[in-house]
Structures are given as structure tokens and as C-alpha cells.
From TrEMBL:
GO terms for molecular function: peroxiredoxin activity. This is Alkylhydroperoxidase AhpD family core domain-containing protein. The keyword Signal does not apply. Residues 18-96 form the Carboxymuconolactone decarboxylase-like domain. Keywords: Oxidoreductase, Peroxidase. The lineage of its organism: Bacteria, Bacillati, Actinomycetota, Actinomycetes, Glycomycetales. PANTHER family: 4-CARBOXYMUCONOLACTONE DECARBOXYLASE FAMILY PROTEIN (AFU_ORTHOLOGUE AFUA_6G11590), BLL7811 PROTEIN.
Length: 157
């Protein structure tokens, strides 16, 4: 598959990516369990139908030592027994934040309260920011038609 538009050859898109990457670096200081971001990035990318990002975050998670069985079950996390309570709360918040227009009130109060009980303010800020950033990346890649399958773990540093 050829991309509709090569984001990585566009100086304007490269500038946007630079700023999104800078924002992503700030999330690293939020104190999240190191395995959690890849689960959330993968789930949001699946929901948004972003093959490029799904490929990337699956491969990066495996390279970071995540169990491929858990990754294969991220799309069915509610039925899977392999996720902690905190991971489940973060996955629920990720889904609601990604599907924000599908809910009457945005994020359900129960989903928010469950996450609130399990994460500090900094961790919640990290999750919220991470979800916002990956949704932006998903939209860039889906609109540009960025193909999936060719990503190599760690490719973007």
C-alpha cells in the first residue's frame, strides 16, 4: 500500500511531529508503570483503525519485554484475566477518551472515579496527555494513509 501523503517527507508535518514528540517526553515524567503506556497507545490505535500506530506500539511493547499474549488481548481486555485493576482502569479511560464523541458526557463518571482511585494526579495527567497525543498521531497517520507492517521497533528513537 502506498501512502496517500508521505508525512515523513513533509517539513510541516515533521515540525508537528517534533512538537508532539516533545509533549510525549513530558509524559515520561508522570510516574506511570513503564508497561502501561504501550498498552494504552496500542488500544487507542486499534480503536482509531490506525494500522501504522498499531504495528508500531505492538512491536515497541514486545521489544520492551511485554508479553505478546497480553498485547493480543488488549482489544478484549474486559474478558481477559491478564490485566491488573490499574491497567483495566487506564484502558477504560483510554477507550472513553478516544471515543469521547460517542458518549453523552464524554468520559463516564464511574470510569473516571475508578481511574482517580488508582492513579496520582501526575499519573492521571500522564494518561490523559498520552491519550490525547496518540489520538492526534492516529488521525495524522489514518488521514495520510500511512501503511502498516514495515515498522521496526525503536525506529523513531
Amino acid at each position: 500500500m502506498e501512502p496517500r501523503f508521505n508525512l515523513y517527507a513533509s517539513p510541516a508535518a515533521a515540525k508537528v511531529a517534533k512538537y508532539l514528540n516533545s509533549a510525549s517526553k513530558a509524559v515520561e515524567d508522570a510516574g506511570l508503570d513503564p508497561k502501561l503506556p504501550n498498552l494504552l497507545l496500542l488500544r487507542a490505535s486499534q480503536i482509531n483503525g490506525c494500522g501504522f500506530c498499531t504495528d508500531m506500539h505492538y512491536k515497541d511493547a514486545v521489544a520492551a519485554g511485554e508479553d505478546p499474549v497480553r498485547l493480543n488481548l488488549v482489544a478484549a481486555w474486559r474478558e481477559a484475566t491478564l490485566f491488573t485493576g490499574a491497567e483495566r482502569a487506564a484502558l477504560a479511560l483510554t477507550e472513553e477518551g478516544t471515543r469521547i464523541a460517542d458518549a453523552r458526557t464524554g468520559v463516564d463518571d464511574g470510569v473516571w472515579e475508578d481511574a482517580r482511585k488508582r492513579f496520582s494526579d501526575d499519573e492521571l495527567a500522564g494518561i490523559i496527555s498520552l491519550v490525547a497525543i496518540i489520538n492526534a498521531y492516529n488521525r495524522l497517520n489514518v488521514m495520510a494513509g500511512s501503511p502498516a507492517g514495515g515498522y521496526v521497533a525503536g525506529q523513531f528513537g
